[in-house]
Amino acid sequence: MFKVKRMVLCVVAAACASTAVQAAGIKAEVIHWWTSGGESAAIKEFATAYNAAGGEWVDSAVAGGDNARAAAINRIVGGTPPTAAQFNTSKQFHDVIKEGKLNNVDDVAAKEGWDKLLAAPIIDSIKIDGHYYAVPVNIHMPAWFWYSKAAFKKAGIAAEPKTIDEFFAALDKLKAAGVVPLALGGQPWQESLTFAAVLAHVGGPDVYLKYFKDRDANVVNSAEFKKVLATFKRLHDYVDPGSPGRNWNDATAMVITGKAGVQIMGDWAKGEFAAADQSAGKDFGCFPGFGAHSPYIIAGDVFVFPKTSDPEALKAQKLLATTMTSPAVQVRFNNKKGSIPMRTDVDTSSMDICAQEGIKIMKDKSRQLPNPEMLISPDTNGAVTDAVTKIWNNNQSVEDAAKALAAAIKT
Amino acid sequence: MNASPRRRRHQWVVYVALLPMFVTVLFAYLGTVLWSVRISLSSSRTFPADDFVGLSQYARLFNTERWLLSLHNVVLFGVLFIAACLVLGFLLAVFIDQKVRAEDILRTVFLYPFAMSFVATGLVWQWVLNPQLGIQATVRRFGFEDFAFNWIVDQDKVMYTIVVAAVWQASGLVMALMLAGLRGIDEEIWKAARIDGIPRWRVYFSIVLPMLGPSVATAFVLLAVAVVKLFDAVVAMTQGGPGIASEVPAKFIMDYLFGRANIGLASAASTVMLLTVLALLAPWLHSRSRRARAAGRAAQ
User: Fold this and answer.
1) What is the pLDDT of residues A56-104, one digit of tens each?
2) Which chain A residues are closer than 8 Å to B45 by Cβ?
3) Would the CB atoms of B132 and A96 count as touching at under 8 Å?
4) pTM for the complete prediction?
5) Cis status, amide bond into B242, omega within 30 of 0
6) Does domain B69-251 have CATH number 3.10.100.10?
């Protein structure tokens, strides 16, 4: 009896679904990896906007970035590509371009004036041989400093540190107050983003770019680079013994509860603070670096459009690109995602203070710094990550560490 | 002896029934193995490439510290894991074979870890071993301030924690196999041993254990397979850390296959794994087939 009822329900549901399909417009299947609570709320903004613009969004979520990208690439190779697929703003999809398997979005880019609108590091990442091959949808800053106002008060720290020395002084005070100074999840990618932050803030943008962009192995012998390595190692004294293997959100929870003082993490951490009913400026603070001219590391997500000659799919791809980049949708999406819009000509009033500061900094071109993934291939990035995690976890001398990093950037 | 026509027809049906399996083996296994070997000789990154670059992927592989460490780790893990599982599994089986009360419950308890996914239990192990959440923190809270058990965050000891967790999971399976073997041992042997006044442990060690040969061999093969494909335990417990201290070959291959978009290097690594397994298996297969042939001759 129960079974029969269920079958009837299924048939009814299927019938309803099929009528819905007939009523809707241009179908777009989108592969992405935004599956957590805040993330799926964010992608729903895209879906709603796309449906409102006369399309029909077919959601194809795959948990985990690696898995989602592998799924997209397998389908592209297999000849049944999705309408759009998510990648990071990086070199991850450059091989796909080289194979000639992506459609460009030059029309949309020209209409919206991307050459003027977008930040230079993002253009470098998505414009290949004069063609735009991806639609950037956000700017993530992967290395904000998040701190607990309660912990800072307990340790007697009055102001946000303005230099690296002030930062270490603050960490010392936190330690003395019995708080874990630096909340770090000891997983390779988190250690790696900590290293990128130290390289950008202590070594400076020039050394950073010489290493990651020019892949100049000699830069590791410079005094600045040695200071970076020493500083990086010094930070290790300020993490707790339970750090290795910890997930990033568990480390954020330490800051939320005031057990730890500072975490260096991307702006997606805001979702964790929000879930704990904490607000920026009141319960926790954020600073992107030290002082008024600190570099601002840029990362983010893009959608690419696999090659197709089906006119319906082409229409869908154009509609997706236009919808995703329109100012209102950008703000709604990014407020949920924790990132900032990929364009600065938007209404910032609904954003939190960290995002507003991010937008303000993005208007100053000299502070923009691409994250390592935009500059080196996933393969090289992996080799650098292996070297960094070894430096962080082993008692390696500065000389050996420099040698390992020089070898890694050359792979 | 000549096979009768009826028997021959019977065999023909068997071959037809096996055909789908044969085709699957040929294309899905052998075909993909050959394809991997081919890819390992190319410069493939995200996409398979058609060029030949000789053995340069292998040269890079054996210049990669993480790969060498992975091999070292899997050997260390393999030796400890197989030895501990066989010993513990055998002892558990002997224990249950003493006709203990509540045998059914105990058997279930011992076998249960094997029924659960390591993705879940590995996370529990991670918490239990974490110095600030698990055993160390608990014992310290009882007043032993100096108690230290932080192997999982220790470069040199982290592999042992993975061995412990893996043994916990797999020894129940070995127990089940051994127990089945023990139950197949003729009661008469026990009676004869008792009449001769041989101590129980001696009977187990010198008579029963050699008779359990096939069970031990089965357990060994299953455990060896688990060693080669060791992946979930590491990912769930340490993600290869701290640093790269608990990296293993399967994780290396997976990382390069997907996250690092280098299927050339990943294929080279999997080819090395395949060759290693074959090199270990070949002598065993050879001796077994020789023994089988000898047995066949003896039967004639």
Assistant:
1) 999 999 998 889 999 999 999 999 999 999 999 999 999 999 999 999 9
2) 95, 377, 379
3) no
4) 0.88
5) yes
6) no
